[in-house]
């Protein structure tokens, strides 16, 4: 049975009671209080092995108390809870020395697991100052999916680990990369972004590594590359799946050896940059097609982050809409509000363009509509515009899944002209269909694997194995 003395501080008496009962039941000695002053007295007197505290207390903010606790008891793990549930809350908890951050409401079983881990392997962290949150929140959303991402990002802030961000177009991959830089230990260095899909393939190596004068036709002077520009900071490689094979080989060498040469150069140049890559493609599928190096994938995929599409976190839409309206107002556009019915209509939309599409819609509403209150009819008019070719849309509605696959495969074979696609087509196609099918079932059941297995007609263990083999991230959320 676990042992340890747990100090709990929370302004909410109901939460204090629940924690006291739950932790006492599994064997911990628990003391509870509703204010920071009592918590500080206990800690300063040497009591307790672990602290659980809410951020907002009636007499003092826990973020002001944490540095004092860490100063006199650096070995004491502190678990911070908060109903604010923002990205900066998670970051600030990490910066102030918290062992773990839990958004409210939290899972008691998860809390018990965290407590056991913290008491078994205490990890003291140096506390430092942090600026107030302000209004410039880089990431917006309080959904369970975003809370998981905030907690992961908070753990990564003081590391130089290479990160791979996967997500559909418009989900905010560059925002996440910028947040990792701006709130990490390389914040004083440059943040340099390069989009592989936006640069001609024959110029990517010169863009990345720079080139010497005369290295190729048109190279009139020596140019610095993005690696040199990002020295001491972060290099964000967007749409890494579009990087040509030759540049992949050179990038792998940089990651392995920590140095590179310019195009046309001979002297190796040492580099000190943090690499963050992003993609909206399935890199494993590109590996099977021989279009992406498997060894480079594993070098880049040290810490994978999957950004959920907006349709998987529709509970964040109200916060996002208010955020974008506030941004538009700061830029000189009229103040706008939105009715609840209009928000409900936004949540029913599928958002193929994700957060970027929502942002564009909100800016359009702010700029083009004279009324201050945006209603459901306005949203319906924006989202329900008729297709440019309704006849074709009607045909598409009658199309079966088999017909859709046949149409897609016909276009796929046409891309290869007189040649054939790489071998292994059967398994590639099945894999490409299987992953979104399982993903859709998990999204429909809000991450409940038992219900998803029943929906798919699969054994639960079979589904778990497929989730693991396909590396599908499961996000539990409530409706």
TrEMBL record:
Gene name, per UniProt, is: ntrC
Q: Can you cite an annotated GO cellular component?
A: cytoplasm
Where do the Sigma-54 factor interaction domain residues begin and end?
139-367
Q: Where is region (Disordered) located?
A: 379-402
Which PANTHER family does the UniProt record give? DNA-BINDING TRANSCRIPTIONAL REGULATOR NTRC (PTHR32071:SF95), TRANSCRIPTIONAL REGULATORY PROTEIN (PTHR32071)
Please provide the Gene Ontology terms (biological process) for this protein.
Answer: regulation of DNA-templated transcription; regulation of nitrogen utilization
**Full protein name:** DNA-binding transcriptional regulator NtrC
- Provide the alphabetized UniProt keywords: Activator, ATP-binding, Cytoplasm, DNA-binding, Nitrogen fixation, Nucleotide-binding, Phosphoprotein, Repressor, Transcription, Transcription regulation, Two-component regulatory system
Give the species: Microbaculum marinisediminis
Gene3D superfamilies recorded for this chain? 1.10.8.60, 3.40.50.2300, Homeodomain-like (1.10.10.60), P-loop containing nucleotide triphosphate hydrolases (3.40.50.300)
Residue span, Response regulatory domain: 5-119
Keyword Iron present in the record's keywords: the answer is no
One matching Pfam family, short form? Sigma54_activat
As for subcellular location, the record says:
Cytoplasm
